[in-house]
Design goal:
This protein is mainly α. It is built from three helices and two strands; from the N terminus they run H-H-H-E-E. The protein has a two-stranded antiparallel sheet. A hairpin with a 4-residue loop joins strand 1 and strand 2. The termini are far apart. The model has no long low-confidence stretch (mean pLDDT 96).
């Protein structure tokens, strides 16, 4: 995951901005950025956030 922020709170902001502006799903974002979706989900859960597909955001 070298091409995305490492800090979970900066990553949260980065992901939600990208999801809002550029991607229709977390799957599309991960595929395009070549990052592991499971790692992203695990990292966000570690700071209390879950991906909501209806909102297309971590909440």
């Amino acid at each position: 995951m070298s091409n995305i922020p490492n800090d979970p709170y900066i990553l949260l902001s980065f992901l939600n901005m990208k999801l809002r502006n550029n991607y229709r799903s977390l799957e599309a974002l991960c595929s395009d950025l070549n990052v592991d979706e499971t790692e992203i989900i695990t990292k966000m859960r570690s700071v209390g956030y879950e991906y909501d597909p209806e909102k297309n955001a971590f909440v």
